[in-house]
User: What shape does this take?
Amino acid sequence: MARIEYLLVECAKEAHFKINEREYGEGKSPDDAECMREVGKDKAGDPVPRQAELGRMKHERAFKCVQQEILRLFPENISIEPRYGPNGKSGGYALTNRWTGSMKPDVVIHATGKPGQVQCVYDFKFPCIKFRKENPRSDSDTQDQVTLYKKLGGNCNPAIVTPQLGIIRD
Assistant: This one.
């Protein structure tokens, strides 16, 4: 577990650094105004801030790192973005292809070869604005997400992984 968590944090740091460097130049990162700058509209016509766009890019980069560094070492114990939905038979959650009522954590450690037997759940967060970097759990959506992930069970509380603060769990 310690090795996997160390590598998750390293993947988050690497993704954060590389995307910021590519988008803003060596040693630079966006300020709060840049994070909130509108870069487009979503399907519903709502504004998309730069921080959402950066978060998507950083997630993609972090997932590549997880594939290269963690899946290589623990191929039977890690799943990237598995989808879990309610299981009517057991009352718990099981792997599903359904989107409605399901959840999709970023990384799950599970029993060997059994993604349905969740051990620990991790979600990458790449806070952009200064306040969120210092307190990534202050976002109610993040809190709701962590609360939902607790329903998956496991041996540890769900954690968020940030490049600034590493592993954060209740």
Observations:
- Residues 2-169 form one domain.
- Helices lie at 2-24, 32-36, 50-70, 130-134, 140-149.
- The longest strand covers residues 114-124.
